[in-house]
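So, is this right?
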Amino acid sequence: MVFAAMWLAPIYLLIINAMANTKNYVDNFDWAYKGFQPLPNFKAAWAAADLTPGLISNAIYGIVGAGVSVALAALSAYGVVALNPKAKQVWFWLIYGVNLVPIPMLLLPLFDIFARTGLYDTRVGLLLVYIGIAIPFAFFLSRNHMLSISREIVEAALIDGASKLLVFTRIFLPLSWPALGAAFLFQFTWIWNDLLFGLTLTVSSNVRPLMATLSTLVGQYSTLKLPIVLCVTVIASLPTAFLYIVAQRLFITGLKAGS
C-alpha cells in the first residue's frame, strides 16, 4: 500500500492540477480542489503546444519503429535458435550486446554520422535509430521464448516437407505471439517516451517527436501556466496508458513467455 501510494500521489497531483482553473492560479502544485475547467485547459494545451505534428510523428515512430524492430528480432531469434548457426552464443551476444551500451554514449557519434549523410532532421534517420536500438531487447524476449518450443515439432514439420521459412511462419510465429506482443509494447512505449534522440537528431516541428516538443514548453522562457503544461503531459501519456490497459493480458503473458 505504501508503494502504491508513492505511485498514485504524483498521478493525483497531475490530474487535479491539470484540471484546475487557471485564473489566479499560482504556479505551485495544489493538493485540494480549487475549481475545475478541464475542457478549456485541454483546448488551450492543444493549441499552445501544437500537438498534431508531434502526435503524428510519434505514431509513425512508435508503430513502424516497434513493428519493424520486432519483426527483425523475431527473424534473428529464429535464426539463432532453429537454424543452428556456428558460434550460436557469439551471435546471441553480438545482437543482444548492443543493449548493454549506455544510450548517451551513442548521441555524439550518431549526430556526426547523421550530419555527414544527410539523415539529420529526417524521419527516416530517426526511424533507423529507433529500429536499431529496439532490436536487441526484442531479440532477447523472442529468443528466450523460442527456446521453449519443442524441437520435435520442428523436426516433424521438416520431415513432412516444410521449408525453413514455412516452419518460421506456421510454427514459430504463432507460438511466439505473446513474447512478440510484449516486445512490441515495450519498444512502442520506449520510442513514444524518447527525449534524447528527438532533441539531438531533429529540429523541425514536423519531424521532432512529441516528448522533444514538450520539453520546450517548460523552462524560464515559457509563458504557459502550469495547468496547461500538465494537460499537455496528460494528452501525451494517454496513448501508452490506453495501450497497456487494452493489452494488459498480452503484456503479462508475454513477460512470462520471454522469461
Q: What stands out?
A: Residues 41 and 183 are 35 Å apart (CA to CA). The chain has one domain: 49-258.
